[in-house]
Amino acid sequence: MAFMRQSSPHSHGVNSTAGVMQTVLLACIPGLLAMTVYFGFGNIVNIIIAAITALGCEAAILKLRGKPVGFYLKDYSALVTAVLLGLALPAYCPWWLIVVASFSAIVLAKQLYGGLGYNPFNPAMVGYVIVLISFPLPMTQWAGASTLTGIEPLSFLQGLQQSFGLLHIDGYTAATPLDLLKQNDGLMLSQLYQSEAVFNHGSVAGAGWEWVNLGFLLGGLYLLYKKIFTWHAPVSMLLGLGLMAALFFDGGSSTSGGSPLFHWFSGATMLGAFFIVTDPVSSAVSNKGRIVYGFLIGITLYIIRVWGNYPDAIAFAVLLMNFAAPFIDYYTLPRSYGHSKSRRATEKTE
């Protein structure tokens, strides 16, 4: 009797790289819709410019490296990087800022390391940090929610004109809730909430911002449902951030760093937790390692937000833990089948 010879594995996973990336893009829609409702079409303009730049840079580098351009562009990884950058950068920022960030993310942080799967740092966060450090003025001019500024959100065409310097509208920018908390000088939190318009609509984390974070939370839960990643890194990051906020809440005094709810639903917290921290290439690989990795990002995020120089610090916290990911992996390797205990990364198996 003849037996069919087959090598393992005998089953094929349903997820491909392109499929995973398409699911991530779909999950970004609720957060992007909330941004558009409250802040106008600026982030959509950002995404379009970033996508054109990222795909162009990816194609050019692949061509120089002698790689099949169409094959690698179809994995949508460059497009996901562009979308994350477009969401993270301030709405209506200058077009050249988006181009520099996208070029840095694709060329410097991804392709020069060998492409997808070889980059030790999150490409989108590398591009973001480069422009944040190099061009701090345009990177700190955030659009205010239309419910606060009294100005109708800019249309898509107006946003495009604003990005290319063809339209100059004064009064659409406003301090973010994280900015206001960092710059608070002597006011109790209750007084700060009463005196600043961004909190006068009964919001916990600032008008518009909490809805944006709820949108990305919804998208993140969808990704968990689709099993794109496990819960370990995002939940532990939110836990670490919330624990630090609870420890230093200080009853709402002038020295308080803000409540856990404030930190969870302001800035780019949910975008970072479910779309940045979960990057499978630059994060820790084991479930135990992801818990440590995410928890340390949450702690680092709070430290920089409250005691550092930047009001929001997702990018810095993630990049610092990208450095630490190999070290975390070294001590958190799972136990191999047939062994009584887990081994270190440098130990040989018998």
Helix proportion range: 55-70%
Percent in strands = under 5%
Give the helices and strands as they follow along the chain: HHHHHHHHHHHHHHHHHH
Largest sheet, described in full?
Answer: none
Please mark out the parts with pLDDT under 50 across 5 or more consecutive residues, or reply none: none
Q: What is the straight-line distance between the termini?
A: 36 Å
How many separate structural domains? 2
Task: Tell me, rounded to a whole number, the average pLDDT.
Answer: 86
The Cα radius of gyration reads: 22 Å
Structural class determined from secondary elements: mainly alpha
Mass-distribution shape: globular
- Number of DSSP E strands: 0
Count up the helices: 18
Q: Which structural traits does this protein have?
A:
350 residues, mainly alpha, 2 domains, 18 helices, 0% strand
Summarize the entry for a quick read:
Helix content is 58%, strand content 0%. The protein is mainly alpha-helical.
Topology (elements, then pairings):
Blueprint: H1 17-27, H2 29-39, H3 42-64, H4 69-73, H5 77-88, H6 95-108, H7 123-134, H8 136-139, H9 146-149, H10 156-163, H11 177-182, H12 189-195, H13 209-225, H14 232-247, H15 260-264, H16 269-276, H17 287-307, H18 314-331
Helix pairs in contact: 1-5, 1-13, 2-13, 3-5, 3-6, 3-10, 5-6, 5-7, 6-7, 7-18, 13-16, 14-16, 14-17, 17-18
Report what the structure shows.
There is one protein chain. The chain has 350 residues and is an all-alpha fold. It has 2 domains: 16-174, no CATH class; 176-330, no CATH class. The chain has 18 helices and no strands. Helix 6 (95-108) packs across helix 7 (123-134), helix 13 runs parallel beside helix 16 and helix 17 packs antiparallel against helix 18. The protein starts with 16 loop residues before the first helix and ends in a 19-residue tail after the last helix.
